[in-house]
Amino acid sequence: MNHLSEEELILHYYGEEGDSPEAALHLDECAECRALYGSLQRVLNVVDTLPVPEMAPEPGGADGLAVGDPPVDQPEPGIADGLVVGDVPVGAGHARPGASPEEQEN
Hints:
37% of the residues lie in helices and 4% in strands. The chain is mainly α. The protein has a two-stranded antiparallel ribbon with strand order 1-2.
């Protein structure tokens, strides 16, 4: 016996196009698929109650950010949370601990 796929069960749950009359008949006859469908129903019932998240603003949209702009609350790449030793920012390859600003340039 060919069992229903998860996709077929989801289509049946939502009554979507592609849900075949054979799916309902198969569920009537197959305890294994009925059990799987029951589990799927419980999950989808919970998912269907969750709020739909708001979409993020589009680049260049009303928030003023252009494509390629870094996120506003993120530090520049290579800077470790704004930590500064002497006059030199500490980050990937920027400063050596204990070195003076003059030594940092070497």
